[in-house]
Design a protein that fits this description.
Elements: E1 5-11, H1 16-25, E2 29-31, E3 34-40, E4 45-51, E5 56-61, H2 66-69, E6 75-78, E7 80-81, E8 84-85, E9 87-88, H3 90-102, E10 106-108, E11 117-121, E12 130-136, E13 139-146, E14 151-156, E15 162-164
Antiparallel strand pairs: 1-5, 1-6, 1-9, 2-5, 3-4, 7-8, 10-14, 11-12, 11-15, 12-13, 13-14
């Protein structure tokens, strides 16, 4: 297999931006999803960008070139599941990019969540996106799973903007 795939690189703590920059400088295609948040210090408030997934950077490369990517300072290893390198499909990267580009508030939740109702977003920047509706506390969230890294993206969307998709009877 010599095809290009999105591999999931684990970085040293708080090194995601540095690793991403160094990989790009060396010619690799890299995706580091960043979200903006307001941080409060004792003397000021500041808008900062932080990685959506702490410790992860996505690198599009070939399996036989993974070792070269790890030569960047701050790169730790590539994520494995069941003895295989974790990969993320192009479609999953596009979903993450689309969600981030909308500017909606996003949280990540690495906890195991039981599958809930399949829903479709009726309007707004995420219109027609399909996912699950989950309740966490007293709030409803739209859940998008990123199976390649066993992570979930939780987006707060009022239930009135979600349409339940009837489950097909499987025979």
């Amino acid at each position: 297999m010599n095809e290009l795939n999105w591999y999931v690189m684990y970085t040293a703590s708080r090194s995601e931006k540095k690793v991403s920059k160094l990989l790009k400088e060396r010619g690799w295609e890299v995706y580091l999803p960043l979200v903006e948040e307001i941080r409060q210090w004792s003397d000021r408030r500041k808008k900062v960008e932080r990685p959506l997934f702490n410790g992860y950077v996505f690198v599009k490369t070939r399996r036989n070139q993974l070792w070269e990517c790890l030569q960047v300072p701050g790169a730790v290893k590539f994520v494995h599941f069941s003895g295989q390198h974790a990969t993320v499909r192009d479609e999953e990267i596009e979903v993450i990019q689309r969600v981030i580009s909308t500017g909606v508030a996003v949280e990540t939740d690495g906890s195991e969540i039981e599958p809930g109702e399949q829903v479709k977003v009726l309007g707004g920047p995420l219109q027609n996106m399909v996912g699950e509706c989950v309740e966490k506390g007293n709030k409803d969230y739209f859940l998008i799973r990123i199976p390649g890294i066993y992570q979930n993206m939780l987006i707060s969307i009022p239930r009135k903007f979600l349409e339940v998709i009837p489950q097909q009877n499987q025979q």
